[in-house]
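Deviation from plan, reported transparently: adenosine-5'-triphosphate complex.
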Amino acid sequence: MGFRCGIVGLPNVGKSTLFNALTKTAAAAAANYPFCTIEPNTGDVPVPDARLKDIAGIAKSANTIATRITFVDIAGLVRGASKGEGLGNQFLANIREVDAIVHVLRCFEDDDITHVEGRIDPVADAETVETELMLSDLESIERRIVATRKKAAGKDKEAQQALPVMEAALAKLQAGEPVRVLLAGMDADDRRELKALNLLTSKPVLYVCNVAEEDAANGNAHSAAVAAMAERQGAKSVVISAAIEAEIAQLPEAEVGDYLESMGLTEPGLDRVIRAGYELLDLITYFTAGPKETRAWTVRRGAKAPQAAGVIHTDFEKGFIRAQTVAFDDFIGLGGEVAAKEAGKARDEGKEYVVQDGDVLMFKFNN
Ligand SMILES: Nc1ncnc2c1ncn2[C@@H]1O[C@H](COP(=O)(O)OP(=O)(O)OP(=O)(O)O)[C@@H](O)[C@H]1O
Ligand SMILES: [Mg+2]
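Because the crystal trials were delayed, the predicted structure below was used instead.
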């Protein structure tokens, strides 16, 4: 399915360092996964989820298999990118192809590493990049809205439906704001129309504050400023040190715990980035569990049981009959599928069931 987070930011802020750390972890687990790295700048990354181990322990599974999301390392954007500066058009096209944006901001001081604007100011950097995205959107929508207005005046139903959303997006962009801020106040239909326009600033954003090693545990004044900006926008931010993450990714697994502790950390920052990316994409996880393996699977929030079955195999979706469903808390609390059944907590759910995060499912299907 490939849910994709694009790593975006100014040049030389640590995007590739982050990407390499993310995908090194993946490379380590590459042996038991057939379609790992597809293109040099695209990597599939396992989504850390402590529930896998809990379920596997109870189900006595020989293996656990995490679900995955895709990260794309996109080249740096510079001021003027929307006018083609620094191969801007090509990079903007790369951003158009992702579902969410992971925006890396330089929050570390280091005179040896050039900053394209010659000063460390992540909030200003965020505005520089966002401005390029808005200018690109503005041009795109100005170009398309002319035809839509004409068609709508000519009583074209589709155009009439699309036009109000396009006008609203245009007004926002002209006011210097990203169209993403419109989403909260929209109903599902309008939201769909807006998404269909595939504007860069309609994509959800996670800010990643890339700090120096010594600030990895607590952040610094720069990352605090980013957190405040994110909060004003209703977005999220995480603090990591890409430099440390790159080192951790190289370590043998047995040494990771001690190293993290020596840095004052409880888990790799990457795990937080991956989980935040997963949330950003509005994805949830369900599980299958058996003696062979406990496995996590990804669906969009709101997906129904047959769609969820289709993630495993299209035949499961086509021949879907029902899904035996045990909520995660019941599975753990009662001690597995058999006990859940005895307690009446294994529900038989049909085609209209909306899958909940953490559900442990077993599909019945015709083939
Ligand atoms: N947290 C950090 N502390 C110190 N140095 C860092 C940190 N993160 C990255 N760097 C260094 O910054 C430099 C630029 O990193 P990187 O190549 O990942 O940037 P980039 O955003 O991918 O750049 P480009 O847009 O040019 O591809 C590298 O020398 C890297 O080692
Ligand atoms: Mg790079």
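The CA atoms of residues 304 and 354 lie 4 Å apart. We consider this an acceptable substitute for the interim report.
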